[in-house]
Design brief:
Blueprint lengths: L4 H5 L15 H9 L13 H11 L6 E3 L6 E3 L17 E7 L4 H13 L1 E4 L2 E4 L2 E5 L5 H10 L7 E4 L3 H11 L5 E5 L4 H11 L3 E4 L4 H13 L5 E4 L8 H16 L10 E3 L12 H17 L2 E6 L4 H14 L13 E4 L8 E5 L2 H13 L4 E6 L6 H7 L4 H11 L1 H4 L4 E4 L7 H8 L2 E4 L7 H8 L1
Parallel strand pairs: 3-6, 3-12, 6-7, 7-8, 8-9, 9-10, 11-12, 14-15, 14-16, 16-17
Antiparallel strand pairs: 1-2, 4-5, 13-15
The chain binds iron/sulfur cluster.
Length: 457
């Protein structure tokens, strides 16, 4: 159950002193409930009430950091089962595997590919988060040598071996970089938990398809003093994908709804299992891996290990991640201001659109690909698209005129003609009245703008 602002308010000092930066304790409680404020911002809150609130506000799923430095990645932290109830925090970390039996050149090439894979979507750079180093050779010395190759690499590491000796050897090399230890099992849990405590590293608990046993072993790990645990109930594919998803859902329900301390941890998925019995055509295996990853990301996977590293395989996975982890309460937006495209001068056309990120990047892409030279005025509509902003009243004459004044567009061009989207035709008169400019109603689709300008400009 999500903690409400009223639950929080009951434990606040209720003096409305304003030292937290809010007008009242109730306003501060509302901010805390939305994770938009820190408890420590209230200097009057101390002792038992502070402790009680800190526990109450601890996320249902523990936040765990893997790696160190700028590329360290945090997983978990979620509060709810459904995104519309709040939002999802800390996007799923996507790792790609490397094996300790790869030759140096193949190892280095794949490592570079993993580190450098990135692309931009709606203004955000999407990239991979970690390397999963597998002890495929079964040899502790080889595992250690492979770990050495990652020692100076900034990317976080997941060390994969069920052999405590091999894990110990690799941790001796990169234990200080806070890798995720994968994995403790029923057979090695004592040795692996000792290693996790010795190196202060998070540890994954692998208990295939048996949540009762997972509960027992999770408790055992916690009682040994380990705090940062990641749960892997096994990734089964084909007809068994339903069982995998059921396990993931059950773990998250137990964490969020039951606050079961043995399950309040991030979940790990391994879509790379698709490569155990690969399809004849490698492309099909990669597609299978990507769809498995997408399905499990939809069902609470907080960290995933994949094998393929082609951009076409990663694009749907990382794009889905971006969509799932966008705060549904806040439309994505760009800065409202004047943007220049191509080479502009005093004769350049002036076009207006809204600051909804998807709208802006679609328009920008069309202007760039059409090699259009123009000024683009981006209106603050609280991140709403053109038709929604017109209907909601944010795209209006007054707002448009104010933006034109603020940006000083009058001084940049020697004409007074403004092109607005076809979807904003109904406010053209209002903009003319408020701005004194001639308003030209443009196309409904920005892909038609280059051809439209060629005709009228
Ligand atoms: S600082 Fe504390 S007591 Fe003062 S208004 Fe904020 S929450 Fe209330």
């Amino acid at each position: 159950m999500k903690v409400t602002a009223m639950d929080i308010y009951k434990l606040l000092p209720k003096t409305n002193c304003g030292k937290c930066g809010e007008a009242s304790c109730m306003a501060f409680a509302a901010k805390l409930s939305q994770k938009e404020a820190e408890l420590s911002a209230c200097p009057q809150l101390k002792g038992a009430d502070f402790e009680k609130l800190a526990n109450m506000l601890a996320p249902a799923v523990r936040e765990i950091k893997i790696g160190t430095g700028d590329r360290a990645v945090t997983i978990g932290g979620d509060e709810v089962l459904y995104r519309y109830e709040l939002t999802y925090y800390n996007p799923t970390a996507v790792a790609v595997d490397l094996s300790d039996d790869m030759d140096d050149s193949a190892f280095d090439q794949k490592l570079v590919k993993i580190k450098n894979l990135e692309f931009e979507r709606t203004g955000e750079i999407l990239k991979l988060n970690a390397v999963a180093l597998r002890n495929k050779s079964g040899d502790a010395e080889k595992f250690k040598k492979a770990a050495e190759k990652l020692k100076d690499s900034e990317i976080p590491v997941i060390l994969c071996s069920f052999d405590p000796k091999a894990m110990d050897a690799a941790l001796d090399v990169i234990g200080s970089k806070r890798p995720l230890i994968y994995a403790a099992t029923e057979n090695n849990i004592d040795e692996m938990s000792e290693l996790a405590l010795k190196h202060n590293c998070p540890i994954s608990l692998f208990v295939p398809n048996d949540l009762e046993k997972m509960k027992q072993l999770s408790r055992k790990l916690r009682e040994s003093g380990v705090k940062d645990i990641v749960l892997d109930p096994g990734t089964y594919i084909g007809e068994a994908i339903g069982d995998t998803m059921d396990n993931f859902i059950m773990i998250r329900r137990l964490a969020v709804e039951e606050k079961d301390d043995d399950f309040r941890f991030p979940i790990l998925a391994v879509p790379a299992v698709c490569w155990i019995n690969p399809e004849e055509d490698e492309i099909l295996t990669k597609m299978k891996e990507a769809t498995t990853a997408a399905a499990l990301m939809n069902r609470y996977a907080d960290v995933m290990i994949l094998h393929g590293v082609d951009i076409w395989e990663m694009m749907p996975v990382l794009t889905l991640r971006q969509s799932l982890y966008t705060d549904p309460r806040k439309p994505q937006s760009v800065e409202a201001k004047i943007y220049e495209f191509g080479t502009v001068d005093e004769n350049s056309p002036v076009i207006m659109t809204t600051n909804f990120a998807l709208t802006y990047y679609t328009v920008a892409g069309d202007l760039k690909s059409g090699k259009v030279n123009c000024y683009l005025l981006v209106l603050d509509t609280n991140g709403k698209a053109v038709d929604v902003a017109v209907a909601g009243g944010q795209f209006n004459g007054k707002a448009a005129a104010e933006l034109m004044k603020e940006t000083g567009i009058e001084k940049l061009v020697n004409h007074k003609k403004l092109i607005i989207p076809g979807l904003a035709a109904s406010v053209s008169g209002d903009i003319e009245d408020q701005s004194g400019w001639e308003v030209i109603v443009g196309t409904r689709d920005s892909s038609e703008v280059p051809a439209f300008l060629a005709k009228i400009w």
